Amino acid sequence: MPESYTEPLGQSNAFLDFQETLSRAAEVDRPILLIGERGTGKELAAAKLHYLSQRWQGPLVALNCAALAPTLLESELFGHEEGAFTGAHQRRTGRFEAATDGTLFLDEIAQIPMEVQEKILRVVEYGSFERVGSSRSVHVDARIIGATNADLPALARQGRFKRDLLDRLSFDVLFVPPLRARGEDILLLAGHFAARMWHELGRPGLPQFSPAVVAQLERYSWPGNVRELKNVVERAVYRSAVPTVDEVVFDPFVSPFGADTGIEVREPDPAPTTGTAKAYRSLEEAVRALEVRMIRESLAEARYNQRQAADALGLTYHQFRGRWRKYREELAVDDD
Length: 336
Known about the structure:
By secondary structure, the chain is an alpha/beta fold. 43% of the residues lie in helices and 10% in strands. It has a five-stranded parallel beta sheet. A hairpin with a 6-residue loop joins strand 4 (128-130) and strand 5 (137-139). Helix 1 (13-26) crosses helix 2 and helix 8 packs across helix 10 (225-239). The relative contact order is 0.11.
């Protein structure tokens, strides 16, 4: 395996069972879907699937499908010809071609627009596609691994994910265990992250956790999983002036000066008390009020992470952004 690859760390039954499942799935040259919460290590799992497979000597190419607009995503995946669109000054090969004889890892696969899903389906079925701006077929041989924290069958029922594509990508579906199911791994990982941070700071010896901190780490539910644990531990280590870490901060956004941070947060409008449609002048007004309230509540629950809020509402990121801009005055937020 290359030097850049990091072997996952753990000793819990949930972790070891999942690693065994990965090893078996790696041997079969078929598409795999990885389902897991944010921060659980889906990219690490995809890398292990690749490097334990028969394609290990080929390239591992990754793409975050939520990071690009639909038009750019198509070009990024399939490449484009010179002059295909404004700014296309030369031919460019896409990620599918780059992954030939290897693995293409599509993270946030639920965010792929339907028109791009159509083209991916053709690649899965026939092993060929056309670059943007070309009618000539390009043949590729790449294994697809997709990852998401969304409910893909539900999206397929809603018409937001192609059922045919889901059927072809789900040769097997592997669920990455969340950290709360890996209780034995919490202190193991915490010690690993603490030692690395301590070494990075150039301090002698090794850090330790006080009994109170150990109890806090073990009791916490870790909604952000391993990524959150890493941040919490590294933050605690760098803030500690002594090797024994006796304080951890789980939420760095909590002000040390009390609740009045100077940031105005607009509270949701109270729901109508009549319980009937007569509280609104029209159906359109009632729908608008409901959408505003649900968007506001989902944003608050997601700590104003718009992608998470969109997932909670069953919307794509672009659908959420459209409504967010439409109602930004009622939501009392700036369009960044």
